[in-house]
Amino acid sequence: MLLRRRKPRIHWVRHLVPAVTALVAATLLPLSPLGTSPAHAAPVRESRPVYSYDDAIRESVWVDTKLDGDADGRTDRVAVDIVRPREPARQGRKIPVIMDASPYYSCCGRGNESQTKTYDADGKPVLFPLFYDNYFVPRGYATVLVDLVGTNRSDGCADIGGRSDIQSAKAVVDWLNGRATGYSAAAGGKPVKASWSNGRTGMIGKSYDGTIANGVAATGVKGLKTIVPIGAISSWYDYYFAKGAALFDSGPDGLADTVGSDAAHGRCAAVQKRLVDGAPRTGDWTGLWSARDYVPDARKVRASVFAVHGMQDLNVRTKHLGQWWNALADAGVERKIWLSQTGHVDPFDFRRGPWVSTLHRWFDHYLLGLDNGIERTPMADVERAPDQWSTDRVWPPSGTRQTTLRPAPGTTPGVGVLGTERAAPGATAAFTDDPRLSETDWAADIDRPTPAKAGFTTPPLTKDLRLSGSGTVTVTATPSTTSAHLTAALVDLGPDTIRDYGANGEGIVTLENRTCWGSSTAGDSACFKVTAADTKAVDYTVFSRGWADLGHYADPRKGRPLTPGKPYTLTLDLAASDHVVPAGHRLGLIIAGTDAGLLEPPTTTPRLTLDLKSTAARLPLTGSLRADGAAPGAAPERLRGVRTPSVESPLPLR
Length: 654
Hints:
Elements: H1 21-27, E1 28-31, E2 44-47, E3 57-64, E4 77-84, H2 86-90, E5 95-102, E6 118-119, E7 125-127, H3 132-136, E8 142-147, H4 163-176, E9 182-183, E10 191-192, E11 197-206, H5 208-217, E12 224-230, H6 237-240, E13 241-242, E14 245-246, H7 252-259, H8 262-267, H9 269-278, H10 287-290, E15 304-310, H11 319-330, E16 335-340, H12 352-367, E17 380-385, E18 388-392, E19 401-412, E20 415-419, E21 428-432, H13 439-444, E22 453-457, E23 465-469, E24 472-479, E25 485-499, E26 508-516, E27 527-533, E28 535-549, E29 568-573, E30 577-581, E31 586-592, E32 607-611, E33 616-623
Parallel strand pairs: 5-8, 5-11, 11-12, 12-15, 15-16, 16-17, 20-22
Antiparallel strand pairs: 1-2, 3-4, 3-9, 4-8, 6-7, 9-10, 13-14, 17-18, 19-20, 19-33, 21-32, 22-31, 23-30, 23-33, 24-29, 24-32, 24-33, 25-28, 25-31, 26-27
């Protein structure tokens, strides 16, 4: 499926917001746009660190969500920890907010160093995880960290992306805009107003936190001006399943148990049961998933979106990004995107300096209302090789076209070819599901006939071939048993040095020295460990994959038993990517069964026979499909790649 580009309906802010004019005037430094001389360029401004971080106000407020998720007869309150500069409040000036709503502030930590919130003896917040407060508070922003319902110091029960989760964060945006009630204590207490806030809010966060930002934006809440989702989920069904095939060994109830506070464990049994009952391991779609699918409500989004994702993220896969990006494009939402070669990694840990600078300009533009030119920068930054980036004015780039590639038998039995010609009638390929093997095993033996996969390759390319977006693979398969799972994967066959996304750091290694990004206090340091690219020399790169349960052939939302010996046609959705297969390399397509470490096996062990005439990959490509016609020689040994990461215990965190 070609990712879409549309003219945005949200206009870039080009003038200072009147409510913050006085603040902006006190915190700006004139600059010149890149590539222009000061004599001929309009001045560009940015917020500067003129406020005291050491003297900043640190406080906690409990905001009423107006929901009673734990059914205790009282509406739930969520804990909101705030750090904001003291000087604007003294002068009666209001400021914007950078907000990160998370379930991980006590159970699991945030960032590469797993920071958790800390408090003094009186319960006053001391450590705010990550660098947002250290960097932006001195520049005239408030940083607001929200404990989602059922976590840390909040009431209620975590419902994993459902109504309570989203409402607990949305209520804080409403409170910042004067539409909700906050209190000085978790129970009772005095009403507290956000009289210091101008209401302009930007939400940011990685993984679960970014997912909440997507969900809150999809409510259309007023005052939310921008979101920065990093490795974020757009549909919780697609986190746990791929067209009926289970991706993890547990459902949302397991995650709720992980993030829930000790108090929540004692009061949330009913919510836990609803999560179990509403998410059957059959992979069928239920009302629980409809309530946790933000994609249909992208049309309600008022905020701009700066999306960041690792193209090798096998925890929160880029299918989430692709479908969200398309929906935002259809809604005309203003967007920007960074795509890295990493797995589930924050840009602060793979491109730190440019990330802080770009995020600074982004928030200055949308929250302070500055005309700083960021809307004239390229829409997309894509990592081509470790620490080597390219840009595109729009994404997917102009000239990307949906192209159909077809598998066919090759000259060696069990080793197929991939091209534009349809296979002859009656041509087949077969494999037997082996749940012990993964995409890395199949790719390593793509030039050899092996019983657990069907592999097809082009000859070496004469020119570069670029895939940008989301592809599909349609197969007609005849199973030998009543159940079957399928995997389709695209492989770049050729030597390269890439980030080792299968290692523990998912493409980064953490060093001991630190760099500092903002101001520090005794309890909250702005200095974080440096990271570097963790690289590996490989013979092949799996760069996109998709999975499905063949029993969902007729209805992606409901499976049924298969009839052995009967052919079924099903389309697998490939995760979004942006990858260049260089001239001299080959493009490979693998079709197989259970992808070990990523996909749970079916209830039987099927042998599947593919009808190659009716099997095809439809891919968003630019560049030449021409090949030199040379047949690859027999591989003397298995090809070397990156091992498949195991994510059998889901925790969209790191």
